[in-house]
Amino acid sequence: MRFKGGVVWVRTDESGALVLDTDGRAEMKYRESDAKSYRPSPGNLTPDSGDGPAPPAAPGATASSDSIASVRKSSHAPKAAKAGLPGGAVEIWTDGACSGNPGPMGIGVVVIDGATRREAGEYLGEGTNNIAELTAIERGIELAGADRDDGRRFRIYTDSSYSIGVLSKGWKAKANQELIARLKRRLAAVPRVEFVKVAGHAGVPENERCDELATGAVQGRPRR
After folding, report:
1. Is 36 part of a structural domain of the chain?
2. Looking at the whole model, is its pTM more than 0.85?
3. Active-site residue 159, yes or no?
4. Residue 95: active-site member
């Protein structure tokens, strides 16, 4: 099935119907081998072919007895919306993690461009949480190719009020001035860009995935 344009794995029963929990949410993974799963609303899931709504939930089904399944990619999948049209913005999801503040830093980025999905996690070294959040945004811009004005619209999702404040609301930065100035220059080259504040650690699937990538980068860092 698809979630926000990307192919995902969802839990179904033997008939192919979605299995919902007691809150009416499905179980979803970005890869079958992922240990972590997410709980999207069935209304946010669509068949990979794009031919109709998500399969109905199996009455009385429970997650413990069913399997994770993914609909294979179809050659009839709907084309991505044209850039610049409503709903056609490239989504850049970012998050920074810091074990201690300051401490080891990691970043996670997910870019969704129509039917294309790209992910990145990176260990940055020692620093602060704010540096990690800002650097995640910079990497997202790079991964999406957003630092050039080619007519596309970009929407950057972050749970960092600090990043949104210093980059788009005129907050005065006492630290990280060089990094912020560099980011502002890059953003200035992209007239059609907006920031969206999301709640961190609140079950927002793409934000949770970025957090997973960031913390994984910190945990997998080289040890002295």
Report:
1. yes
2. no
3. yes
4. yes
Alpha-carbon gap, residue 157 to 163, rounded angstroms: 11
Is 22 contained in some domain? yes
* 23 found inside a domain: yes
- DSSP assigned state of 57: B
The active-site residue out of 96, 106, 108, 121 is 96
Cα 97 to Cα 131: distance, rounded to the nearest angstrom: 10
pLDDT digits (tens, 9 = 90+) for 29-87: 777 666 677 777 777 777 765 444 444 544 444 433 333 333 222 233 333 333 333 45
96 included as an active-site residue: yes
**Of 78, 112, 142, at which residue does a domain stop?**
78
Whether residues 107 and 197 share a domain: the answer is yes
Q: Is 201 an active-site residue?
A: yes
**Which runs of consecutive H residues, i.e. helices, occur in 53-106?**
none
111 and 69 both lie in a single domain? no
Q: Which whole-number Å values give the CA distances from 119 to 49, 88, 130, 150, in the listed order?
A: 23, 19, 21, 22
- Could you say which of 91, 119, 159, 212 is catalytic? 159
Encoding tokens for residue 51? Answer: 């031919």
